[in-house]
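Take a record.
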Amino acid sequence: MFEGQSIRVTKLDGGIAELCFDRQGDVINKFDKRTVEELAAAAAAIKADSSVKGLLVTSAKDVFIVGADITEFGKNFEMSEAELAAWAIHANQSFNAIEDLPVPSVVAINGFALGGGFEMCLSVDYRLMSAAAQIGFPEVKLGLIPGFGGTTRFPRLVGADNAIEWIAAGGQHKPEAALKVHAVDGVTPPEKLRESALKLLNSAIEGKFDWKARRAQKTGKLHLNPLEAAMVFETAKGLVAQQAGPNMPAPMTAVSVIQKAAGLGRDEALKIEAAGFAKVAKTTVADALIGIFLSDQLLKKKAKTVGKTGKPVKHSAVLGAGIMGGGIAYTSAVKGVPVTMKDIAPKQLDLGMSEANKLLSKEVERGKLKPAKAGGVLASIRPVLSYGEFKDIDAVVEAVTENPKIKKIVLAEAEAAVAPGTVIASNTSSISIDELATALKAPENFLGMHFFNPVHRMPLVEVIYGEKTSKEAIGTIVAYASAMGKTPIVVKNCPGFLVNRILFPYFFGFMGAIRDGADFVKIDKAMEKFGWPMGPAYLEDVVGIDTSHHVGEVLAAGYPDRMAPKDKSALDVMYENKRYGQKNGVGFYKYETDPKGKPKKIADPASYELIKSVQPNGQVEMSEEEIVDRHMLPMIIETVRCLDDGIVETPTEADMGLIYGVGFPAFRGGALKYADTVGLKTIIEKCAKYAHLGKLYEPTESMKKMAAEGKTFYSK
């Protein structure tokens, strides 16, 4: 009946037309311009055949449809808001054409149906879902709202409250949850999905189900009286605003769109949705979040290419069985790579195994792992006190104390124990890879593999190569990090590597602001309002004042022109007074345990007293703008320096390192993306304002040149 490159329509027995999504040359189905156009053509072909009695919608892939092709549709966001809204309305005609067919329809959801893929399912009368499938609206995670009818059809199907919960949160939902809210009409075992869908469709054809009433429900008004509407929407606004925060407009826009369209029929409601979609699509937030999505794909693709130059890691070893070592061992084992964990102290081995067991137990509690599977994972971590079993190890990760002398001794011992050619990596956060490599006979097999704490949560791994590191060693560790579910970024060796080298100018900006009289609590509030998950004072406490002090010294020695302190800082004062942060209960803040057993920060008057000694002019009021500029400018400049020095190859890797490594506000896209948003010319002007603060605020020549030429770090 119809044959396209993404869709085909076949006539089955009994007058049933089967519309099958089967994107040629791809392992998944997704909506691009071609697929949307083919959907309209397929609907026209079905409508033109008067012998068709019903429509079955299926997928020939393991997934149903993963959503819109953001790499293609993203280009549409260069349109004006009005043009973008018009495009959304036009695209919706394809979905309307399916919904308006004069016959009943059933969709068999065999795998992931997300975003536009789930919206396609909503245009059909009945939905059957495989027990292995998941559905949902992830659009808000890209700073968008559904644009193919999701905010119109879904509330009318499941109720406004359920629709708001699903759309504003952007999660994926399993069959049980979908059935509970009536997002689907049934769930079947995967092998019975097609048979059940055909049975349901034939029942609808025979008049056993009132498919016209179902369709009228989805295309009519949302049935809420004024009191119900006020309760639903006002309650939702409060909850969504609290969860989304002030910097993510899409969730609140979704609520507003559903509310405005509640009293309208489908076609008018879709116009409201299109306007809301266009509005959020033109925000810097959507631009940044879509950029992160594309950057993540780019990093994975690059890691796959680099990983091909390495050797497969089938069995690894971790040296040092503390919290960090246990976390690394768990992360490896849970992804299927067995680990030998070595330490010299039985108590440390117990600690490492306890950490892995604790993390596995949490996964079991959340229903992510079955107890038997968790037991198998734990059994694949082998604690040892000697190097006796190291001949069959493919890669070693050293995670002992951050002390160069101790690390060199351990690395040399490990090299002597493993087979020739085995790759050895150090989980150092600050010590030079070239310095550590002097302890090894084969430095070409050595490099850095810097995990971030907590290991099981933080997605980034810095893969740091030294002067003598081989490409095979880099490839091996990149592939291993990817196998662990991490995002590896390859970094050239330098003091602080990439992330700490950029983060510490931010901390130095913080110390300068305190020196000049700013209140550290107000600084934290301003930077959290900017979007950081925690302000710099709180972050210092979480990192550990002693750890931060040590890394600061490394960076001061490496970049004395801009990072060497001229005066005693607030960090020095905390360190001298053994206020190490959360680890000993007192730092900038003091910590008490909340009812859930987690540390709760409290502003400590003693901190203010201690800080007075490094505030020559006492406390002063500092505006939010000045606080933000004094923290962000040094970070932007140092990120550019890393790019200029070839520490990373691209702006994408620099920004993603900050987002995945230290929680840089995702909706701002990274330091360089933020600089693009503000404008380099404005950044240069701001730098001039703070030139008296020293070289930390001095823009690079490359920045000045780019500003003069009107260039940006990212092209459209």
Summary: The domain at 2-282 is CATH 3.90.226.10 (2-enoyl-CoA Hydratase; Chain A, domain 1). The first strand starts at residue 2 and ends at 3. The radius of gyration is 28 Å. DSSP finds 31 helices and 20 strands in the chain.
